[in-house]
Amino acid sequence: MTTDTHTRRLAPAAPTERLRKYRPDIQGLRAVAIMMVVSMHCGILDIHGGVDVSFVLSGFLIGGQLFAEIDKTGKVSLTKFWARRFRRLAPAMAVTIIGTAVLAWLYASPLRFRGYVEDGLASSLSVMNWRLVETGTDYFADDGSQSPYQHFWSLGIEEQFYVIAPIALVVTAWLSRLVFRNRLLVVLFLMAVIGGSSYLGYTQTSENQPLAYFSTHTRIWEITVGVLLAVSGPLLSRMNTGFAAVLSWLGLGTTLVTALLISAETPLPGYAVAGPVLGAGMIIAGGCAAPRLGAERLLDNPVFNFIGNVSYGWYLWHWPLLILWPYLVSWEVTYSDRFRVAVASFLLAVAMHYAVERRFRNNVQLVARPWKGILAGGVATACAAGAMALAMTVPLNLATSTSTAVAVGYTDETSVEAAALRTKLSATVQGALPKTADNYARHGCIDNTEVAEFKMRDFCVIGDPEGKKTIVLMGDSHAWQWNDAFHEIGKSLGVRVVTMAKGGCSPQEYRVINDELNREYTECDSWRESVFKELGELKPDVIVVADRTRREATRKGAEATFKVLKATGAELVYMTDTPQPGQNVPDCLATHVDDISSCNRKQYEALEYTGFRTMEREVAEEYGASILDTVPAFCTKDVCPSVIGDQVVYFDSSHITSSYSKTLEPFIKPTLEEALAD
């Protein structure tokens, strides 16, 4: 059954209008947009804004179709509209979602598979953008945490637009025709959406970047710009062709220049996406007048036309291949690998265009009977969603162990040396791997990024809360990772342990740029000052400083902090930073159970920023701190094993597991006992 929404039939277009059904410049701009996206994602060229250009194009094309149908028939067939969208999008999307899951099962880390298929399910239901908002995903993170389905966020926004837009636009057009006898209300409505949505996108960027980047209400303005251009098409087509030509060239320049000025450090979406959106709008607006010497002269060519035809498939496949490529080739991705990903995904897109997209888009039966088109798309969507739901129940490809014995970790330096010679992963460790990501410190406290002041809470006090002596463990997440070990030590010594930690915040006074905030980490500075004040009131017996070594470190900053700490009268202990594994250790172990040596890192690589490490240690010694060198508990003179005893050393790509830290109690305890005695 066809659902029709009616408006009053509008007058025929004026003969001076130069609107065209087919716009070769639009096809060329589609090719430019996908090349921008693939180049940026693959790291070939640091150019942003391709998705923003695509949003404008989608709004213009869909808006043009809807208003053309209203002009021609006085109504819109929602059934036909949604059938066209289903035929265009659903089959290729289903193939990509299922195909990506198969590749992930065959090659990727088993530990990632469940999360991947959950993302695949969200993608098949067109809500991936909201899943990324919920998980607080950093789109530009480069730490192995990205999902092969992450790029479905933009398709989710477009598909949500396709559901709501025809109803909202037709109702608004009908009311506008009824009240004003023209489309004034439509224009005002679209301008209100653009203004409100862009304002939310700008303000939310600094407050909640994942929400601003992925949510529908902060991005819908970009699509709406395209719709507004479609509504204004008849007026724009009457522009002077000379002016239109200049406008389109300026638009192309604006798109490319502003896209190149945006970097991974630019707060996005913020104000920066306005450049590519404005540029795309200028190209489209200028092309409405069909100028002979406009940007269409460049955009209209066989190469761009072909790329535009396969752009949807290229978008679908380039990101999954990029994320899974390290697993496919079993080595760290090189610059040439990134070109290989771009080429391989393009070839997949070409194959899918002819084997899947064209078969559904041009199928006579589906075109003639819209309900069949909706049914075909629904079946494709259901197959993808069902496959993902079924995949969630598949057992992970890892051995299990029935052993209830506590896994041995560090005993002495010989245990580290033995671990360096190990090649196979035991069933005990394989069985523990699925829970390794949650094997982090549970005691004590750590403040998150937004917290600007340390406040003493009951759960910050661990060890023996009634102890007469107090140890303070102070630093960033590389101090927090020791909390459980210090809890056990505090209990055994009858000492109160107060934890003062803040993510990404060094206790040493130097300027830090926070990647999550994309700005100077001022919250760290104020938090550190509040900690110093708290130490003055607390009067601890021992202060232990532990933090991640950073290249921003300065001798002046280290000296300023140790001067303050020494003035408290406490004994000082400086724990050297733990080695950096350079990759997500549980993932690596899960994919190399028969050769875990590839998950171990050379010592000279793991001890990053050696000059800064040496400087911090020297400053600590100058101010009388005892040095607790952690390296012997993690590395031989050549290599830093990822498994010691039967304990996985790291739960991610940086932080040690709680279970391994607790086996280091005999390694740490003597230094603390000596400091307490002094």
UniProtKB/TrEMBL annotation:
Transmembrane segments: 28-47, 53-68, 89-108, 161-179, 184-200, 220-236, 243-264, 270-291, 303-327, 339-356, 376-396
GO molecular function per UniProt: acyltransferase activity, transferring groups other than amino-acyl groups
SUPFAM superfamilies hit by this protein: SGNH hydrolase
Recorded topology in the membrane: Multi-pass membrane protein
Domain SGNH intervals: 456-670
Pfam families the UniProt entry points to: Acyl_transf_3, SGNH
Keyword terms, alphabetized: Acyltransferase, Cell membrane, Membrane, Transferase, Transmembrane, Transmembrane helix
GO cellular component: plasma membrane
One GO process term, biological-process aspect: lipopolysaccharide biosynthetic process
Location in or out of the cell: Cell membrane
Domain Acyltransferase: 25-347
Classification via PANTHER family: ACETYLTRANSFERASE (PTHR23028), ACYL_TRANSF_3 DOMAIN-CONTAINING PROTEIN (PTHR23028:SF53)
Official protein name in the record: Peptidoglycan/LPS O-acetylase OafA/YrhL
